[in-house]
Design goal:
By secondary structure, the protein is an all-beta fold. The protein has no helices and eleven strands. Strands 2, 4, 5, 6, 9, 10 and 11 form a seven-stranded mixed sheet that branches. Strand 5 and strand 6 form a beta hairpin.
C-alpha cells in the first residue's frame, strides 16, 4: 500500500519560509517522479514542481522558479518543498504525488497540507 504523508504546512507571514515534507512508503520509488501540486480555494489544482527519484531532475512551474525548491532524500524516502519569500497568493492546500516516470498521470496522492500566508 503506497502512502504519501505530507507535513510542514502552517501559518506564516508574507516574506517568510516553510519547508514541506512528503514521506513516501509502500514501494520502491526509484523509477518514480515525485510532484508537488497546490489548490487554492475556488481554483483548480496546479502543478508546482517535480523531481525524478533516480536522477534528481527537477521541473518547476515558471512562476515559482527562484522561490520554491524541490529536493529528495533517498535514505529517508522523503521529498521536500522549500518555499521562500512566501506571498498571500501562495495560500493553498499543497499535495504530494507520485507517478511512474514513464507515465504522465500521477497515480498516488497524499492527503494535503494547508499553507496559509498572511499579509
Amino acid at each position: 500500500q503506497v502512502q504519501l504523508v505530507e507535513s510542514g504546512g502552517g501559518l506564516v507571514q508574507a516574506g517568510g519560509s516553510l519547508r514541506l515534507s512528503c514521506a513516501a512508503s509502500g514501494r520502491t520509488f526509484s523509477t518514480y517522479t515525485m510532484g508537488w501540486f497546490r489548490q487554492a480555494p475556488g481554483k483548480e489544482r496546479e502543478f508546482v514542481a517535480s523531481i525524478t527519484w533516480s536522477g534528481g531532475r527537477t521541473y518547476y512551474t515558471d512562476s515559482l522558479k527562484g522561490r520554491f525548491t524541490i529536493s529528495r532524500d533517498s535514505a529517508k524516502n522523503t521529498v521536500y518543498l522549500q518555499m521562500n519569500s512566501l506571498k498571500p497568493e501562495d495560500t493553498a492546500v499543497y499535495y504530494c504525488a507520485a507517478r511512474n516516470e514513464f507515465m504522465s498521470r500521477y497515480e498516488f496522492w497524499g492527503q494535503g497540507t494547508q499553507v496559509t500566508v498572511s499579509s
